[in-house]
Each structure stands twice: as structure tokens, then as C-alpha cells.
Design a protein that fits this description.
339 residues, mainly alpha
Length: 339
């Protein structure tokens, strides 16, 4: 916390804590200096309140401090009003006391206001308005059970284009066509029956097969558009699923190609980095060799001089060896001639 001021909400300046701490310390010193018989409850309560406010200021309990000081301010203002209004203003010294009380009350009000500046204020909440549910469009549903996804506009449009669903007139299937009668009759003659439906009409006709036949064919023809619509819807759904699967495979292929291209780019970048690193090392080696070339030449010159010096020394030794041998041979010949 800063000493004189604080820009952080909920954090008091440090001087307020030291003010309350000093007040508590002075109250404690006052209690210590008073004789035991003169210590009253007011002195003890004053010290405890001072210590409490110092502790609250230390932990930045601003709301509690504002509450305590607001209560004290109310008592001070009430006492001031009593002194100013209820006491005879002509009494000796009452004017000075009244002025002091009014000033103390004003200071108390200002103190509560000042402490309230550091209290954390709740942020204003923004009310989110929602449109009424009547404004949302309600989709119409087809009476017959449709496969999953059949309520979409492209789906219904495809059915309408095939003559299966009439969107502009209540989304109802078309009427049976003459081909439906011929188809159902041929299926009945071929023995391809809807057994549950046939059994139903046979029971209702009390075993009269001829009567049950025509009721069966009539109901089959009546439901033919609905069954045809369901078949077309299933077919379109299968086509849409196949198209979605093809799109998924295409996305996977594109993703694989993109990944392969990225890996190729990464490999190329790595090769370029390795090549640049090799070139850099070669350049550093060349610079090192170029920097060491004068020293190498100097060493070679020193080595050549050393070899030349050793060669000259060897030749001098050989010459002294020849001279010594000649000297010894001459001494030997003189010795032989003297004998």
C-alpha cells in the first residue's frame, strides 16, 4: 500500500493505519498512567475500539471501518445537535463548546466520506434483453415420421423437385397416381403382401378374401405416396451422407497433402539450415586457417633455420673428424719413419 494515497480499490493508504495505531498506543499509555481506581469502562472501551480500528485498517477492512466510523459520526452529530439546540446559548462558554462540537461533527462526516472513497464499489450490471419467443420462427413439421436431417430446407427442396413433397401447399404428399393402383395390384397378384395389413383386412372382412383384397389394395394405394416419400427421403439422406463422407475424405486428403507439404518444407528448411551451418563452419575454418597462416609460416621458417643450423653443425663436425683422422695418420707415419 502507498503511504499517502492508494489507487487500488479496497486498499487504504498506510498513514490511516499508523493514525489508528498511534491512537491505540496513546490510549494504552493513558491507561497505564492512570491509577487503578480511576480506570473506567470508557477508557477500556476507547482503547479496544482504537486497537480494533488499527487492526481493521491493517487488513484493509474498509467496509467495516466505514460502518464503525459512520455509527460514531451519528452519535457525534446527535450530541452536537443536543449541545447546540438544547443548551442555553447565553451560558458562559457554551458558544466555544458548540463551535468545537460542530467542527468535530463536520470532521467526522468528512472522515466517513474519505474512508468510503477506498471502499470497493460493486460494478454496475448490464441487463441483457432477450427477444420474445414469438419472434423466433417456428419450423413446420411433416406429419409422417422423417429420417434424421429431413427437416432441412435443401432436403425438402430436393423432395419438392422430385414431386414427392409439396412445400407451397402445407407440405403434404401428392395424391396417388394411376401407376400406384397398377403397381399395388401387380404386387398383390405376385404374392408380395404386407402381411400385417392383409391379416387386418382379412379379419375385418370376416374371412372374405375378395372383400379384404379390395380394402387392402385401397389402403395400400392411399399410403403409396407416403411410402414413396419416405423411400425418396431415405435415398436423399443416403446421398447426403455419401456426399458428406466424400467431403470428409476430401478434407482428410487435403489435410494429408498439407501435412506432407509442411513436412517437406520443414525438411527443406532443415537442409538449408544444415547447409548454412556447414558453410558457416567452413568459413570459420577458412578464417581460422587464414589467421594461423602467418604463424604457420613463421614456424616453418624457424624449422628450416633449425634444420639448416643442424646441417651446418653436422658438416663442421665431419670436417673436424677428417682433420683429426689426417692428423693421427701423419703422427703415425712420422713415428714409423723415426723407427
Amino acid at each position: 500500500m502507498a503511504f499517502w494515497t492508494s489507487n487500488e480499490p479496497g486498499v487504504l493508504p498506510e498513514w490511516i493505519f499508523w493514525l489508528f495505531s498511534t491512537t491505540a498506543l496513546l490510549s494504552l499509555i493513558s491507561l497505564g498512567t492512570l491509577p487503578s481506581g480511576q480506570i473506567s469502562t470508557e477508557h477500556i472501551v476507547g482503547f479496544l475500539v482504537s486497537a480494533l480500528t488499527a487492526g481493521l485498517a491493517r487488513i484493509n477492512a474498509v467496509k467495516v471501518l466505514v460502518g464503525i466510523n459512520a455509527v460514531a459520526c451519528l452519535f457525534i452529530v446527535a450530541g452536537t445537535l443536543i449541545v447546540v439546540l438544547a443548551v442555553d446559548m447565553e451560558s458562559k462558554g457554551v458558544g466555544v463548546v458548540s463551535a468545537i462540537m460542530v467542527g468535530y461533527a463536520a470532521f467526522s462526516v468528512w472522515w466517513v466520506w474519505y474512508l468510503n472513497l477506498y471502499r470497493v464499489k460493486p460494478s454496475p450490471t448490464t441487463k441483457v434483453s432477450r427477444p420474445p419467443t414469438d419472434s423466433y420462427p417456428v419450423a413446420k413439421s411433416y406429419s409422417a415420421p422423417l429420417p434424421k436431417g429431413a427437416g432441412s430446407a435443401p432436403y425438402e427442396k430436393q423432395l419438392a423437385e422430385r414431386g414427392i413433397l409439396d412445400i407451397e401447399h402445407g407440405e403434404k404428399p401428392e395424391d396417388p397416381s394411376p401407376d400406384d393402383y397398377a403397381t399395388e395390384l401387380n404386387l398383390f397378384d405376385a404374392g408380395e403382401l404386407d402381411q400385417p395389413l392383409w391379416a387386418k383386412h382379412l379379419v375385418e372382412a370376416e374371412g372374405d378374401a375378395e372383400k379384404a383384397k379390395w380394402k387392402y389394395l385401397k389402403e395400400r394405394v392411399g399410403t403409396a405416396p407416403v411410402r414413396r416419400a419416405e423411400h425418396e427421403k431415405a435415398k436423399i439422406e443416403a446421398e447426403m451422407q455419401a456426399f458428406a463422407e466424400a467431403q470428409r475424405l476430401e478434407k482428410e486428403r487435403l489435410a494429408a497433402e498439407r501435412k506432407a507439404a509442411e513436412e517437406a518444407i520443414h525438411r527443406r528448411i532443415e537442409r538449408e539450415i544444415e547447409q548454412e551451418e556447414a558453410e558457416r563452419k567452413a568459413a570459420e575454418e577458412a578464417e581460422r586457417v587464414a589467421a594461423e597462416e602467418p604463424e604457420r609460416k613463421c614456424l616453418e621458417e624457424r624449422e628450416a633455420k633449425r634444420v639448416a643450423a643442424e646441417e651446418a653443425k653436422r658438416k663442421r663436425l665431419e670436417a673436424w673428424g677428417y682433420l683429426l683422422a689426417l692428423f693421427l695418420v701423419t703422427i703415425f707415419l712420422i713415428f714409423i719413419s723415426a723407427i
